Amino acid sequence: MNFREIDNGDPIAFKVDGQRFETSQKTLKFATNNRYKVSVTTKPPVDLCYANLGGCDLQLHSSNPKSGEYAAEWNTTGCDGPCGIMKRQLQCKFYSKDDSHAYWGHKLSAIQLNCYSDGSGNVNVTEEEIK
Description:
globular, mainly beta, single chain, 4-stranded mixed sheet, about 0% helix, type 1 cannabinoid receptor binding, CB1 cannabinoid receptor-interacting protein 1, CNRIP1
């Protein structure tokens, strides 16, 4: 998974928070009232039919669904709470678009989730790497 600002193509920032929060040791930084390109790649390729991020349904687009590569636009204006079938909690913080704190930190290249499916439709994340 990868996030980039649509206006300029820049990756989002993240910072290391150590043990400060229960959910993650790293916090992803997003600007409110902003649009992001969300890229998702599944290995092995999986046919995705639905995605929801921050309570917002995403329109997934793929030039070849058999490739496991998808892209969507996410607008952070007016997003509600989380919902969906497979949930993964990511620690994020939102700043005003004009606040330079939204852009400080390491630039996010990707979020890699290693998953396991039990064959009955349940998917469990076995490892998370933010890089």
